[in-house]
Amino acid sequence: xxxxxxxxxxxxxxxxxxxxxxxxxxxxxxxxxxxxxxxxxxxxxxxxxxxxxxxxxxxxxxxxxxxxxxxxxxxxxxxxxxxxxxxxxxxxxxxxxxxxxxxxxxxxxxxxxxxxxxxxxxxxxxxxxxxxxxxxxxxxxxxxxxxxxxxxxxxxxxxxxxxxxxxxxxxxxxxxxxxxxxxxxxxxxxxxxxxxxxxxxxxxxxxxxxxxxxxxxxxxxxxxxxxxxxxxxxxxxxxxxxxxxxxxxxxxxxxxxxxxxxxxxxxxxxxxxxxxxxxxxxxxxxxxxxxxxxxxxxxxxxxxxxxxxxxxxxxxxxxxxxxxxxxxxxxxxxxxxxxxxxxxxxxxxxxxx
Length: 353
Prior knowledge:
With 353 residues, the chain is an alpha/beta fold. It is built from 10 helices and 14 strands. It folds into 2 domains: 24-227, L-asparaginase, N-terminal domain (Rossmann fold); 241-352, Rossmann fold. It has helices at residues 2-25, 57-62, 88-103, 119-129, 152-164, 253-260, 278-289, 313-316, 326-336, 343-352, and strands spanning 28-35, 72-81, 109-113, 136-139, 174-177, 180-183, 187-189, 198-200, 207-210, 213-216, 241-245, 265-270, 293-298, 319-320.
């Protein structure tokens, strides 16, 4: 009997060691939480109204026990806000922490949980300012954690699976939501309520993730990461850049007001091919004379704003945003202004990134 008990104990210890060795082989993924709907809650499972950023990162991880089958996961709380309150300060904090993790042995990959409202902006900012080979993935949810059929847990699972996948490397910052893998430059939010709100306009998906089974289609074609010239190391703030939305019979007042308020750059969310009223164009000229850089983007969902097509950019000194939407054009302009206010140099940045 004693021999049987001893044998069983040895077998149990061997199994435990084998399991421990197997866990040690799994990649380490660090989740940096910032709040958002994915961490939100409501009073019932079926009401539309809810409060963002109610849960901490440990709760988010605990809600997906299946994570342990694909990675060793730990979490850090960077912020706990609705992403409508995302700020330059938190962007710089995130970039700093991610760059630290890129250089350390703490982790193999990074996942950022985020609200959907400004997710595309944060993703693109990190796409241009994070260095290193470790994959960075953002994820989010359209339904709060308390909702009937909440989408957050599976999004977290797929995001960790994509982050831990070696094939994700070299594709820049990724966004994983609703089984899709998006590139940070292409993704945009298209619906206020649909779960399938995110679309990669024009260029399409990077890939798909089906319960952690990943398939990849393409890599980004513009500069990012190690090939990016933008650095935010040691920065405490970024230049102010305002976005001004064009419409029929637009006056010059808002452009003049942005200049008076201290904007170093202005992005015009123009009509059509980045167009604006004559009054607005005259205000743009005044802004440029005062050293403010003005970029022409479009409020239209798809297509590209071409240089010197309907507005003579060479004559006015404006910059054409290409296929970047106004929110992302603002990010390139903010980063470019760290080095120069020359419109020709900034146009080159838009053509490159």
